[in-house]
Amino acid sequence: MKFGITPPYRANVTTDAEWMTYFVRNAESTGFDSVSVVEHVVVPAGLADNYPYSESGRWVLPVDCELPDPLDLLAFLAARTDRIGLSTGILIGPLHHPLMLAKRLATIDKLSGGRMRLGVGVGWMEEEIAAMGVDFESRGRRLDEVIEAMRALWWDEEATFEGEFFRFERAISRPRPTRANGIPIHIGGHSPAAARRAGRVGDGFQPIGLAPELLVDRIALMRRTADEAGRDPDAIEVTLGGSLASFDEEQLDVLRALGAHRIQLSAATDDLNLIAEQMWEVSPFIDNGTFGD
User: pTM of whole model > 0.70?
Assistant: First the structure.
């Protein structure tokens, strides 16, 4: 089983260069396969209680939480590590123009030696999406175009794209990602639409934050959709979530039975020594064999 790690955003440490360097280097030396960082461009002061991953609907982070740009943060972490994968979890795709996003992702991937993975979703915070001038109801269609357009830029010598939201002709984007197939794109989200999108176009599916019975349903839907699209469902990597502080072998067995290939653990303290101990306790479960072997 592969394991990824997410820093403790609630502890407001993600803009502390020394803290983040120690954190990511320790994760790398312990055997974690990737570090994952989140995106929120702006958080409204009067945020409505519509967070989809808690029973109360309340967001789990304070509104004044430090939320640095995820790609800039990953570039910083890439420069301080040698092997650990670099992932967004989750980047809000509809807020980005594919020409700019393809360039930024490929640059990080190239300079890091092919370590970039894009976790991307439609976003849930309606106020944030509206503040960026994007229609909330169109965000799924926008994300589909962002993915298709970026792959055209990465795969074609001269990329042309004609969509509802984005258009360009004979565009040449360099650098290209290190891997011939481009940067792996993992679809994040809890909805049936996210599961279907992962089945149609995703290299991976990340339905973190759902109860086990819903995870079974969403993963099955992803697999059915992939099969209907003529894709191999077994080639789509599934990432599920857990807590670094409380993770144990029983949880490992449950998530493995659900179909996880990677478990994304979230740290919850600014105590680096405690985090190091918790990482060490998880290390016997880590097996970073190549997906698909």
Answer: yes
Q: Name 272's Cβ contacts closer than 8 Å, sequence gap at least 6.
A: 19, 22, 23, 26
CA angle 252–271–117, rounded 5-degree value: 50
- Tell me: pLDDT of 103 over 70: yes
The CA distance from 238 to 200, in Å, is 14
Rounded CA-CA distance 154/120 in Å is 17
**Domains of the chain as residue ranges with CATH:** 2-285 (3.20.20.30)
The CA distance from 101 to 146, in Å, is 9
Collapsing DSSP states into helix, strand and coil, what is residue 240? strand
DSSP 99-133: HHHHHHHHHHHHHTTS-EEEEEE--S-HHHHHHTT
Q: What is the pLDDT of residue 288?
A: 67
Three-state DSSP class for residue 182:
coil
Residue type, 275: I
